[in-house]
Amino acid sequence: MIHTKIRCREITESDVDAIADLLTRGFVGRSRDYWIQGLRRQAFRPVPEGYPRFGYMLDNDGSPVGVLLLIYTARQDGETIAIQCNLSSWYVEPAFRNYAPFLTKIAQRHKDVTYLNISPAVWTWPTIETQGFSAYCRGLFFSVPVLSRVPRWTKIEVIAPHAKRIEGLGEAETELLTRHARYNCLSLVVRTPKGVFPFILQPVRIRRGWIAPPAMQLIYCRSVAEFVACAGRIGRLLLRLGKISVIVDSNGPIPGLTGIYTERRGRKYFKGPHRPELADLTDTELVLYGP
């Protein structure tokens, strides 16, 4: 069958309901409410000027038959602004799969943008690498921070979603922590004699495998070394919340933390001028849409 009215175009706000329906059909186990929540978050978040708010769709005479969600973020890189794009959920109706390359081609056309793929299926790894992507994260470290020593003279503070000021942090990190608290993340600061250290964690579901503790994913810290230094204090807070493990993106076992490293899951790829930091998953699909 020949489809003569297929075109690839930017998703607009008027397409959101139809895109949610398409994604619900394409991803078994994800409810329509899951997609609507994430799309609404994309609708209201800041997006760098000149880049699409939602991504691109294959339009068949007015109806979406394919979608690739894109999450663009402007990040400070020294004195310049670097643009990062999380290539998120991709789905094309079976009858239109021949048109799928149009989506990937238009989505990756900016040479100055760093593209991320943070949730690739294992069977897609070779294909992603042939597209020019490199793995910046090879696996996950399942830490048990409550087993770490608690540094003396430290305090921990949970950040409220609408906090106006966080003592010891600048405006940018304050806004980062409060914004992610509004995304149902757990935003924290640990106050120590050496300084104030910010962290963002998110509850996650481990769907398979023999490691299945009540877990949190580390979404943000300035460096993994800071998480190691504050792990004992964070672990005791999480234990009161019923969480045992904190999952950390890693390329191997993390000195100073008790836990297990695996490369069976967690690989993450990038393509572009700026290699992502391991301890930064802010403003990605994991946060906007959920695990």
Automatic annotation (TrEMBL):
Gene3D superfamilies this protein is in?
Answer: 3.40.630.30
| Domain of life (superkingdom) | Bacteria
Q: Which InterPro entries match?
A: Acyl_CoA_acyltransferase (IPR016181)
Listed name of the protein: Acyl-CoA acyltransferase
Write down the species: Bradyrhizobium iriomotense
